[in-house]
Amino acid sequence: MLIEIINTEIDLENSLKRIVITNLLNSFRMGYHIIVFENEVLEKIIKSEHFGTNEKSYARELKNRKRLFFHSIKLLLYKVIVDFDNEFSLISSRDYTINVSYKYFIDNNLNPTKLLAEDIIDTKLYKLITNFYISKENNLKGIRILFDEAHGGGNGTKKRFDEFKSKNVLCLCLVDNDKKHPNGKRGTTIAKFHSKDFLLDKTVLAYNIGVHEIENLIPCYIINKIMENANKNEYSSKQIESLDILKKLVYVNPDIKKYFDHKLGITSKNIIEWDTDYGDFWLPIIKDIVKNNCLISRKCTCKFECKVLYGFSNSLLEKSLEFINKESIGSIDKNLPDFLKNIWLEIGKVILGWSCSLEKVRC
After folding, report:
1. Which of 323, 342, 320 is nearest to 333 (CA)?
2. Structure pTM?
3. What's the distance, CA 230 to chain centroid?
4. CA-CA distances (angstroms) from residue 156 to 119, 123, 161, 188?
5. Which member of 138, 147, 285, 329 has the greatest number of CB atoms within 10 A?
């Protein structure tokens, strides 16, 4: 994360302030965060008898690198402001800024930001998405991402979020909405979060990725590659056909991609219930593409499950990561539909704001 120091007439005779400066310089050395001191302060550190050879070396390196990342930091969405005149331990936040006293960093508190997801594998895709965002912004050269992965196992996500909040740990939490219809109810995981959680609150923020599940962020062309390279009989003809139908539906209304259950699929009963309860969304589009009597009559009396679209298995995300990792940025950029690209860029910008860092110091 971007950590910016203000009120820089720092009393280097103050041992607590020296400890914090050392901690900040060590965080820069480890590549955990982007640290911004005024050049005058760095010069004081370099010339001070209170700091050792290592700290002075890190200060020189930070001063040299500032020229390289000066323009980049203007693109970063969030930051921590450290006030060396603030002797209180209160933490405040507003909009995109976290304000802390220098005392916040006395006990270090400088590990990478926690990226909290519902499942640990989710963070792998989030990392790929953020690197894609970095590649699309010309002025982010030299900026990388680094975060500590954390997960809540679905329903435990809110509990872990609250734990990080109570400990004043820097934490960005990403949750899906589990909605199957634009006007439908939110899922049980996101429902545990309060509206204030989605605003910066001290050192934490919850962010709604805006789709049913993380699998909805996987482009159809990647799912197509999975099927083409799968073992014989790993995917049924119904699943292959469902992908073709999904592409047609998304062509008519891209929002379908946001709400389709990519793992389990959907039934005619699902569609009729959702559109009856929340308003027409699925039926006007799907009944013209999928020939199904239940959809036409808006009534399903089938004894067995009347599947309209089949899902692509619970292992879809894991299999997708294997193929996305092999894709070049150029290939992803070319094949990613605009509506999905915009969602990727939005998510990537938020994550980068919390997890931006620089390469480790080698000196």
Report:
1. 342
2. 0.95
3. 29
4. 10, 16, 9, 11
5. 147
pLDDT tens digit string along 182-225? 999 999 999 999 999 999 999 999 999 999 999 999 999 999 99
Separation between Cα atoms, residue 23 and residue 26, nearest integer Å: 5
Q: In what order do the strands lie in the sheet with 148-151?
A: 148-151, 114-117, 171-175, 204-208
Residue reference for tokens 């679905």: 154
**Identity (one letter) of the amino acid at 117?**
A
**The pLDDT value given to residue 363:** 61
SS3 41: helix
Phi/psi at 120 (5° precision): -60, -30
Q: Which residues contact 325 (CB under 8 A, 6 or more apart)?
A: 128
3-state secondary structure (DSSP) of residue 214: helix
CA atoms within 13 A on the CB side of 33: 27
What DSSP line would sit under 74-90, residue for residue?
A: GG-S-EEEEETT--S--
Tokens of 231: 């073992």
| Per-residue model confidence as pLDDT tens digits over 245-279 | 999 999 999 999 999 999 999 999 999 999 999 99
Residue 175 and residue 193 in contact, taking contact as beta carbons nearer than 8 Å: yes
